[in-house]
Amino acid sequence: MRKLVAEFTGTAFITAAVIGSAIMATNWTKDGAIWLLVNMVSTVSVLYVAIVLFASISGAHFNPVVSLVKAVQKDLAWIDFLQYCVAQILGATFGAGLAHLLFDYSILSVSKIERLGANIFISEVVASFGLVLIVVASWRKFKVRNRASLISLWIASAYFFTSSTSFANPAVSFGRMLTDSLAGISPQSLALFIPAQVLGGLLALALSNYLVNASRE
Predict the structure, then answer these.
(1) CB neighbours of 195 closer than 8 A, spacing ≥ 6?
(2) Is residue 107 helix, strand or coil?
(3) CA 43 – CA 10 distance, rounded (Å)
């Protein structure tokens, strides 16, 4: 239960940071570049803190794709994978509601922001690929703070070089479907994002396995 609470809490804080900072940024200015910068700084800061705080409890996945990869690697039982996913999705839903509460919005709403297109799909594949590759490569080789730094730096960079702004997380993407703020994503777009994120994660795992096996030859 401690692990599930940690996954719920971490995912909730990350989702609240994404949505809350988007609302705050749009309240401040009409400059889209500043919106993106504010959103990125808030998100990666909370991501770093959450990983450092909860890594020793649950592994600090906060992401069904990361949990899927750990299950495929047999580092996580499949029943635990399902429980992690439920905790992460519930956490993201709570985080979306919390962000709305903090800014006096309706607790939950469904986004109408369309994020569609082949470029968006490929962007999410790339963003998730990089994230999972870092997670797999650094899992046992780096201290938690170093791993958190690498993950946060990747997300910070991918915010700006991917056209999707690097969602790279099915649970947080689901939470973002429940906001009508700038951070939102429509249900139709979510149906595009999740397969792209899963594909990116599995490709990263495949490459990691290949590199490890090649190094042993």
Answers:
(1) none
(2) coil
(3) 12
Q: Which amino acid is at 14?
A: I
- Rounded Cα distance between 133 and 176, Å, is 24
9-25 residue pLDDT tens: 999 999 999 999 999 99
Structural domains in the chain plus CATH codes = 2-216 (1.20.1080.10)
Identify the helix (H) or strand (E) that includes residue 77: none
Residue linked to tokens 């903090």: 102
Which pair of tokens denotes residue 89? 């999705």
| SS3 at position 73 | coil
Residue that the structure tokens 């569609």 belong to: 116
**Alpha carbon distance 51, 54 (integer Å):** 5
User: Which residue has 């692990």 as its token pair?
Assistant: 3
Asked if 166 contacts 183 with a C-beta cutoff of 8 angstroms, the reply is: no
> Per-residue pLDDT tens for 168-205?
999 999 999 999 999 999 999 999 999 999 999 999 99
Q: Is 130 within 8 Å of 197 (Cβ atoms)? A: no
- Is 15 within 8 Å of 23 (Cβ atoms)? no
* Residue 114 burial (CB count, 10 A): 12
The token pair that represents 170 in the structure block: 């099915």
Give dist(CA 147, CA 134) in Å, integer. Answer: 8
User: What is the value of pTM for the model shown?
Assistant: 0.93
